[in-house]
Design a protein that fits this description.
Elements lengths: L1 H11 L4 H17 L1 H4 L4 H8 L2 H30 L5 H12 L5 H15 L5 H26 L3 H20 L2 E2 L2 E2 L9 H35 L1
Antiparallel strand pairs: 1-2
Helix pairs in contact: 1-9, 2-8, 5-6, 5-9
Length: 226
């Protein structure tokens, strides 16, 4: 949860003030207005959720989707700042990924709200939730600009974002549930499956190389016409 929050804040450092405040307001209202659902939870139910292996594996899948989108954002960011020609479709996709806050930050915000409600018995639920929302409203911009002050170079922040999500990806792959791994190990090698993966890798490389050559030819033709 800490790494997910750090990745979320780190991605916000690539935004301007308006975008940071818009995402902050969304998180504030999400944290403040979900208390009717938070009070329906119990510690026993949360413990049962954490002990549910299938639910944890589903959560790992959502985490993997979030990580893949962040990886794609990092690659597009580098491409847009280093390529001489960038298509309009790629720019639109980059904007979409840039403004996408992530999937896992919302469950983390909700779980923190549930923890606060259990930690403050006797306090009004709306008071806890709206105070929590106000704390998020102050904390997210402060953490974003504090991190931008610590890491002023855009390239370093992008590299750290990539490495942090790589750490999350490795954690998701080696996810454990109640002391068992998500995938049981085998003593032999499935040569058919291994060959299929190798064939997919080769086909992917050939397709990428072909698209690269076609793109270069189009760019060269445009340059020749000019």
């Amino acid at each position: 949860m800490i790494v997910v929050c750090f990745s979320f804040v780190l991605k916000q450092t690539f935004h301007r003030v308006r975008e940071v405040m818009a995402v902050t307001v969304v998180l504030m209202f999400f944290g403040a207005m979900t208390w009717p659902y938070a009070i329906e939870q119990s510690q026993a139910q949360i413990a049962a959720w954490l002990g549910n292996g299938q639910l944890m594996l589903d959560t790992a899948v959502l985490l993997s989707i979030d990580i893949a989108l962040t990886f794609f954002f990092c690659v597009l960011h580098v491409d847009l700042n280093t390529s001489g020609h960038v298509s309009q479709r790629k720019r639109q996709l980059y904007r979409l990924l840039k403004y996408f806050p992530g999937l896992m930050v919302f469950p983390v915000v909700f779980s923190m709200l549930v923890t606060l409600i259990f930690a403050l018995p006797g306090v009004s639920f709306p008071v806890i939730s709206w105070s929590y929302g106000a704390l998020l409203f102050l904390l997210v911009p402060s953490a974003t600009y504090g991190l931008r002050w610590l890491l002023p170079e855009v390239e370093i922040r992008l590299e750290v974002l990539f490495l942090v999500n790589l750490l999350l990806a490795l954690t998701g792959i080696v996810v454990t549930v109640n002391g068992r791994t998500a995938v049981a190990g085998t003593g032999g090698v499935d040569w058919r499956a291994l060959g299929g993966i190798g064939a997919l890798v080769v086909l992917g490389c050939l397709a990428g190389w072909g698209l690269y050559e076609i793109k270069n030819k189009k760019i060269n033709k445009k340059r020749d016409k000019r």
